[in-house]
Specification:
Layout: H1 7-15, E1 83-89, E2 91-92, E3 101-102, H2 104-114, E4 120-121, H3 124-133, E5 141-147, H4 151-163, E6 169-172, H5 174-178, H6 187-195, E7 199-202, H7 215-233, E8 239-241, H8 249-257, E9 262-264, E10 271-272, E11 283-284, H9 292-299, E12 302-303, E13 306-310, E14 323-327, E15 335-338, E16 343-348, E17 352-357, E18 364-373, E19 379-388
Parallel strand pairs: 1-5, 1-11, 2-3, 4-5, 5-6, 6-7, 8-9, 12-19
Antiparallel strand pairs: 1-10, 13-14, 14-17, 15-18, 16-17, 18-19
The chain binds zinc ion.
């Protein structure tokens, strides 16, 4: 997978009235998320990428009247919206790690956008509760998550979030803190955050590639990290993020049985009342995918409602995957963008979309994003991330 746009794929896509972009693209257009998690595990490749539609117009910006700008986070839940957008950061101002870092000037632009009016930055537990219960949320509800508990969260991000009264959640792999790895927070720092109202979530013990290890080892990681949270913080978190966004049916079951109420992957898209709460989407933000056009596009995105997604497991048992889904809303102009592989899309009637690849995709993680223009020039978005053995 190289190039930004493959004419042959484009041509095939065009047959069905849509275009495909394949491979890594940067910058322009209805942006994409790319997320390459680091951590202590040995990565199964850094190719986690999403492609972006390069030919679409920039989305309209929020036009709602500005709420009290000083208190963006105290907006009560409740409202008619049935979706929310959750962002994922890792490092702040650690420019030597561009795939997991956000530069401070980019981060400050994000904060400026979120405080510009039109958004409600809410705590993740509140968002999960509201959508799971069907209670509803304000339009453009935003959740902020940070994975891995790097030291720069404490030193760089927290003061800025605090100054803007913005809630956020940190997903912590306990072993890095237990070992006192120098660029991670200490437990003392995490306790300070908790005291200040920051939500802590689980992220396994060793930051393992969970689908790649024995299920008993997965359970042991979950049990050990729960014990450490209890000892250090006095509670066990209720939210979980799969390291690298990698999961399969057994891992999901184990996480659920460990008591987690909701769990997040790293696939792009807006979460909604209809989401799978054991594998919720997030938009990754890093240096490559942290530009303002993409940030605004993601922050304003809406769910693309689908059902009967295949493959049903989040780890591929067959490669190339036979990817397909059924649209719940009309989407005549839907376009899909795989991170790897030459794809052909077939529409079966108005509702069913089937995508086939001309060969196996690379091991690691395979993403596919499907978008269509929704109301108010806001993109409807459905993304999937599959772990590829
Ligand atoms: Zn992580």
């Amino acid at each position: 997978m190289t190039g930004r746009f493959r004419p042959d794929t484009m041509l095939r896509g065009m047959v069905f009235g849509m275009s495909f972009a394949v491979g890594l693209t940067f910058g322009a257009g209805p942006g994409m998320a790319q997320s390459t998690e680091t951590g202590t595990g040995t990565g199964t490749g850094t190719g986690a990428s999403e492609s972006i539609q390069t030919d679409a117009p920039a989305p309209a910006q929020a036009q709602d009247p500005a709420p009290e700008a000083a208190e963006p986070s105290v907006v009560a839940a409740g409202g008619d919206a049935t979706s929310a957008v959750v962002f994922m950061y890792h490092r702040f101002g650690e420019d030597e790690y561009p795939s997991t870092n956000i530069r401070l000037e980019q981060f400050k632009e994000h904060i400026a956008e979120l405080t510009s009016g039109g958004y409600s930055v809410l705590g993740l537990p509140q968002i999960v509760r509201a959508l799971e219960s069907g209670e509803g949320l304000p339009d453009r509800a935003i959740g902020i998550t940070i994975d891995d508990a790097y030291r720069s969260v404490y030193e760089q991000a927290w003061p800025i979030f605090r100054a803007n009264n913005m809630p956020f959640t940190v997903f912590v792999s306990t072993e890095q803190l237990d070992e006192g790895v120098s660029n991670y927070m200490t437990w003392d720092m995490v306790r300070e955050l908790v005291k200040d109202g920051v939500t802590i979530g689980g992220h396994s013990q060793h930051h393992s590639h969970l689908p790649a290890i024995d299920i008993e080892a997965v359970k042991a990681e979950l049990a050990h990290s729960a014990e450490r949270f209890k000892e250090e913080l006095g509670f066990v978190p209720e939210l979980f993020a799969y390291p690298y966004g990698e999961a399969n049916a057994d891992v999901i079951k184990a996480v659920k049985e460990a008591g987690y109420k909701a769990s997040f992957g790293q696939q792009s898209g807006a979460m909604s009342t209809e989401s799978d709460f054991t594998y919720l989407p997030r938009f990754a933000l890093n240096e490559h995918y942290g530009a303002m056009d993409r940030f605004k596009l993601a922050a304003n995105s809406l769910p693309l409602r689908v059902s009967d997604v295949t493959p049903g497991d989040y780890t591929l048992t067959r490669n190339p995957p036979a990817f397909g889904f059924t649209l719940k809303d009309p989407a005549p102009d839907i376009a899909c963008y795989p991170s790897d592989g030459d794809a052909t899309m077939t529409r079966l009637g108005d509702e069913r979309v089937e995508i086939r690849l001309d060969g196996p995709v690379a091991s690691g993680r395979w993403r596919i994003n499907c978008t269509t223009m929704g109301p108010q020039s806001r993109w409807r978005w459905f993304g999937m991330l599959y772990t590829v053995p």
